[in-house]
Amino acid sequence: MPINLRHFRPRAAAHRPELDLLQTQCWEDEDLVVEHLGGPGRVGAVIEGGDSVLALALSGAELVAWGSPAEQALLELKLVGTRLRHPEYLQLLGLLDPGRRLTLYHLVRPNLSAASRRYWDQHEPTLRVGILSQGHFERGLTRLRERVLPVAMGGRLDRLLAVQDMGEQLEILAELRMSRRWRALDHLTERGLREGVERALAQRLVHDCGPLLWLFLGHYPKLKGCGRRYLLPENYAALGALQGRIQIQTQPAQLDRLHVGHSGGKSDAATVLSWGQEHPKGRDLGGISLRGSGALRAPRGGG
Predict the structure, then answer these.
(1) Tens-place pLDDT, residues 154-201
(2) Residues 6 or more apart in contact with residue 220 via CB below 8 angstroms
(3) Which residues pair with 62 in a beta bridge?
(4) What is the SS3 string spanning 104-139?
(5) Is 22 exposed, middle or buried (0-12, 13-18, 19+ CB in 10 A)?
């Protein structure tokens, strides 16, 4: 299962006034979010990057999603973009080859709300680059990948990307743990980045862990294993039919009877970094904070 890199934000990326999207992808473990909150029923969720909202809707839930105007525009584009063919949809979001993203945007633009059209018309440079890499958090990962990791990891990064078995990956991980440059990440990034990456490398091959692939490469070499249900071709037809099941609004005014999904009583970075550890109830929650994801579920029986 993918680790949660949501709180791993380089300090240098804390403020970029020209951007108003904190993240354009969600970094929760979708499997766990869907397991605990998915299926038939009425679910409310903060939009953030929109991925968890789409994953819950694909599981059969009816969603009431709320967020800032920028988050609403992002989710709406991810929904309306399904009028394109699947490869074009991926290209619009920032995957595959660049070059036609603005053309593709203008093909779906008439189907956006007036507010979302105004937002994206003002942010065409973001569309041109590819929105999946343009949130505050994702830009921070880009700087980390381009400026820090080559020094901190050296040639070990190329070796990790080429590794084929867990034994070899564990050997490289042991070398990293002995490296002063690697341990210096603690002074350059927010607390927990190094430990979180080490824990992920100890439990999952890089090529099977979407967040690590994005951290190391800035893209997904293959969609299978990327941890994003809505990007998979087998879910694309169902994704295109979700608009009627997702209500987007600014305030959670109609959700006062919903409660927060169980997160083990924690919602901070420490929860994120407990990936792979045992949950107090004996269930491995993958270190995910459902409270941190903003996911809420209506109590069973309407209570």
Answers:
(1) 889 999 999 999 999 999 999 999 999 999 988 877 667 888 899 889
(2) 95, 210, 213, 214, 226, 228, 231
(3) 42
(4) HHHHHHHHCCHHHHHHHHCCHHHHHHCHHHCCHHHH
(5) middle
